[in-house]
Design brief:
By secondary structure, this protein is an alpha+beta fold. Among the domains are: 43 residues; 175 residues, Heat Shock Protein 90 (2-Layer Sandwich). The protein is built from 16 helices and 17 strands. α3 runs antiparallel to α4 and α11 packs antiparallel against α12. It is elongated, with a radius of gyration of 55 Å.
């Protein structure tokens, strides 16, 4: 029982060793694809042969029908020749007049008393049949040419001397069909007839009226075309396609078939004919247990439909040979591949085991391991990537450590600027009350504003988000204090869209920038310094602009400042405990990412502009109370 369990575990995929698993995978990867490829190749080759056969056969049918159509067109032209030969028309008129006179003289007993004019009849016959012989020699295959007057008297010529014995019945059929025409040629399908030479023959016929100059009918011409004309074309077609052919007209009458067993019969009820719908196409059918391919196409001129039957076995004969060769080659390749897979499975195992051992050490926290790459194969590439991965992990750890250090340093810089809030609030309140008792309202207002600023500055964490409105109010309070110190020397202009007032922003972004503008841009020669704060939203960023009309800075100083903003290691404290431009820039990048931050533009004597770019979409912060809207006002 235990042995059976061990055996099952040995061949269970999840419990297999790497060697067995690789061997199994190689077997599956080699045998299945090769087998499938061989099968697909055989089927694809067979299908390609059949498709090419269909296309080629259709082209052959088209070419054959073009030749037959050209032949029939020539026969139609031949049938129109009597209309241009005056001798034929004159003698037909003479024949019609003679037989009309004979019909007018009929006795009471039905006998014709009009005397026979044998000389006239002989003259008419020679005049017509002499021209018929000429017409019959124009085109090969024109077996017999018949010309009839209006009373059914026939004149004919035949190359081999064989003419129809049923000429009277044939004339009545032809006359009935062309009665409603106006001189155009009609094509009659293959008919079987007995000749005067006691032989059975087949022919298709072109029939048309013969008209005089006034377009009145004076006779009828019928041109029998020997079926051998089509037979030659079909034999050539069957030889190329290795099949058999059937030609039928629109009524299903058989024009020709390869076995000549269905000539002059109607095949409209034949199952194959019923399936050959439309003007062209192909389909498969089984006859006597053998699969057959049928290809058919229709002549646009005669509407005759050619149906070719090709045994599928004939089509796949070459594909079967290819299949057998492919099968032998596949078996040989599988054998070689199996031997190679056994060798490769053992070759892969050793470095993989080493890789697993190193991964376990990494899992235990040892990032100093390194895979020794000996070869440039896939295992070597995997080892290189493993080493690069460890190096990248180490770098990421260092970067995270550095970012956390930067965050702590930024927070420490903010904390260093803070003092005990209760002490500050209580002391300022005592000073304010003393000022009010002494009727010093300016001092009381200054102390009140300073208290608000200190409460905002130290009332929360440095990375907390507040509404933009609160940041604007903090700047307004700062400018108010400046104007107490420097009476009416600073004017603050705000152009902030109302929707932006509710959006979140980190604390203490603008006041340090305004402070920097005041202390570095104040020009003693100017009585008033203007500071503008503007904001706009684009699809990419929310852009805040703070600009002044102070003294500005030269290009060298500006370039050095912008470079220091981009270097994380260039941070330093500015002033006595204040938060400088670099600190603001780094807090923006730490909060929102390296795509955002601050850039300074300035021109000496023309002022300075600080552009802050923040994410375009931030969550709105719920405002406490209903602060007064300061957008668009001046202070």
């Amino acid at each position: 029982m235990k042995e059976n369990r061990r055996l099952n575990a040995r061949w269970r995929l999840s419990d297999m060793s790497m060697k067995r698993r690789l061997l199994l995978v190689f077997i599956i990867i080699i045998i299945l694809p090769l087998s499938v490829i061989s099968l697909i190749s055989y089927n694809s080759y067979s299908r390609s042969i059949q498709e090419n056969t269909v296309l080629y056969s259709r082209n052959m049918i088209g070419q054959m029908m073009e030749r037959v159509d050209d032949y029939i067109e020539d026969m139609k032209r031949i049938s129109s020749i009597p209309a241009y030969i005056d001798d034929i028309k004159l003698n037909l008129v003479r024949s019609n007049q003679y037989h009309e006179q004979r019909q007018m003289v009929v006795g009471k007993d039905g006998s014709n008393t009009f005397p026979n004019d044998f000389d006239l009849q002989l003259s008419i016959q020679r005049g017509i049949e002499g021209n018929i012989a000429f017409i019959n020699n124009i085109k090969r295959g024109a077996n017999s040419v018949y010309i009839f007057d209006q009373y059914g008297n026939g004149y004919y010529s035949s190359k081999d001397g064989a003419v129809r014995l049923d000429i009277t019945d044939s004339y009545e059929l032809w006359q009935d069909k062309v009665a409603t025409t106006h001189g155009e040629a009609l094509l009659f399908s293959t008919q079987e007839y007995r000749s005067n030479l006691k032989s059975t023959r087949y022919a298709f016929t072109i029939v048309r009226k013969i008209l005089d100059r006034s377009l009145s009918p004076i006779g009828l011409i019928a041109v029998d075309a020997n079926i051998s004309v089509i037979e030659d074309q079909v034999v050539e077609l069957d030889k190329v396609t290795r099949g058999t052919s059937l030609i039928i007209d629109e009524q299903g009458d058989v024009i020709y078939d390869s076995g000549r067993k269905m000539l002059a019969t109607n095949a409209s009820s034949n199952p194959v004919v019923l399936k050959a719908k439309g003007s062209s196409g192909s389909f498969y059918d089984t006859v006597d247990g053998k699969r057959q391919l049928y290809i058919y196409s229709t002549s646009p001129l005669t509407k005759w439909k050619v149906i070719i039957r090709i045994p599928v076995k004939e089509l796949t004969k070459e594909a079967d040979v290819t299949r057998n060769v492919t099968l032998l080659a596949t078996l040989f390749i599988i054998g070689v591949a199996l031997l190679a897979s056994i060798f490769l499975s053992f070759a892969f195992t050793k470095p993989m085991k080493k890789m697993v051992e190193l991964m376990r050490r990494v899992q235990a926290g040892d990032l100093s391991v390194k895979f020794k790459v000996k070869h440039r194969d896939e295992i070597g590439q995997l080892g290189n990537q493993f080493n690069r991965m460890l190096s990248r992990i180490q770098h990421l750890i260092d970067d995270i450590y550095q970012i956390e250090s930067q965050k702590k340093e930024a927070e420490m810089q903010a904390l260093q600027s803070q003092i005990n809030p209760h002490f500050v609030y209580n002391t300022l309140e005592t000073i304010r009350m003393t000022a009010e008792l002494n009727d010093d309202t300016d001092a009381a207002d200054m102390i009140s504003i300073l208290g608000k600023m200190l409460r905002y500055s130290i009332g929360g964490k440095i990375h907390d988000e507040v509404p933009l409105r609160d940041e604007i109010e903090h700047v307004i309070h700062y400018v108010q204090l400046l104007n107490y110190r420097y009476p009416n020397r600073f004017e603050l202009h705000l152009d902030i869209p109302e929707p932006l007032m509710k959006y979140a922003i980190i604390r203490l972004l603008f006041q340090p920038i305004v402070e920097n503008a005041v202390y570095h841009g104040l020009d003693d020669l100017k009585l008033t310094m203007n500071i503008w704060m503007e904001a706009e939203v684009t699809p990419r960023v929310t852009r805040m602009t703070i600009r002044d009309d102070g003294c500005g800075m030269d290009e060298e100083t500006l370039e050095a400042l912008n470079q220091s903003l981009q270097a994380a290691s260039a941070r330093r404290r500015e002033g006595n405990g204040g938060i400088g431009l670099r600190n603001v820039h780094e807090r923006i990048r730490l909060r929102y990412g390296s795509a955002y931050g601050m850039k300074v533009f300035s021109r000496e004597g023309a002022g300075t502009e600080v552009v802050i770019e923040l994410p375009p979409e931030t969550k709105p912060v719920m405002l406490k109370g209903s602060p007064e809207d300061h957008g668009g006002n001046s202070h």
